[in-house]
User: Fold this.
Amino acid sequence: MLAVITQGLSGQHYTVQDFTRPLHPVKSTGDTLFLVETNYPATGILLKVDEWEKIAGSFLISGMDTLNFTEGDEGPAGENKKFSNLLTFSNPIYSFLFYPGRIKGDIQFYYINAQQNKEGSTAKPSKKKRFRLCRARHD
Amino acid sequence: MIEQSAWREGLPDPSYERIKTTVHNVIVHHSAGSNTDTNYTGIVRNIYIYHTEIRGWSDIGYNYLVAPDGAIFKGRDPGSLEQDNVLGAHFCAANSGTMGICILGTYTEVSPAPESIASLKLLVNWKLGKDSLDPVGTHPHLLNASLPVIAGHRDGCATECPGEILYQSLNGIRYDVQEIFRACGYRAKPVETAIKNSASSVLTISYTAETLSIRFNEGRNWQLKLFDLLGREVYRSNQQGSSDEVILFTDDLATGVYLIKILCNGNVYTDKLICR
Assistant:
């Protein structure tokens, strides 16, 4: 099973999940894919791995899309770790297929929830205009 | 442009002391994210959360972000400063003197949308015109002594950013912006690059996109000649020793390499001029 660590600070918009192999391997044309359930509405996903790992070659599949993880551009993450690039989704996802590629060691998934809180929105609902149907009179 | 208050709605405001920087280099990035995600506001919000909550930065790193549909998002909140002059966090931990523009998407194998390139040019043209920066020039930076004024992230440190395809297109963007500059009548300020020999104490040569300027620090007995690569003299200064500075407009010179020969106080100094 996945060990889920939720860093549940108030107001936080992300959560962290440890990836532990083997989980739910799904055989697919010779490569081993893992089904990952996020347990969190993820609009953004990135990996955190040891800095000597090669991230290139790992990817995820969500819906009809295969999205590649690559080295992050924002510099080291501290404690000999590094982040991947940030993958985003138009709508939150709750599961995906993951291929770790050449990553051998520990992997942490960072899930971001950037959805706008509809309830908290100050935007006023649009008012529907009412139209009166007018017919030409033919006397 | 899309204001921070619009895309950041519902997320915590940044809280920090803003620092002003005088920009000499515009740094182009790609977000290295999905090319299929069309919720551009959502992408910017994701990056903001990543930078502020996961990385622990005070705000989003970039000054501006450009979406594939051409929409320009204002990035790091400048507070009372200007959007283009607030110190960001995007360039290899050496951000002073830079302004960061992030093109949303990954451009290692595909080209950015024409709309995002058009917005990038618009933004760069505005900034360079405002600060009289040379679109095809360079300005020394801590990480790169010849950092182009319009540079890619990888010009500062080892990274794939802004993606090979976008990086290769930067040269075209530089010349396109230069063309707009000319059409608008903008002029770039000279970037002083003292020549690296004994002449540096005697004279200083500065280049811009359209001018060659020579300032004589010692003595006023000088003459300037310009030769093409075939050794033909294409220019000779008419005046000798009447001023401590000469400015030569290079607009009329054909594209190519020229040799500058300066006679000053009985010595001969040479340098190379490349007209692109």
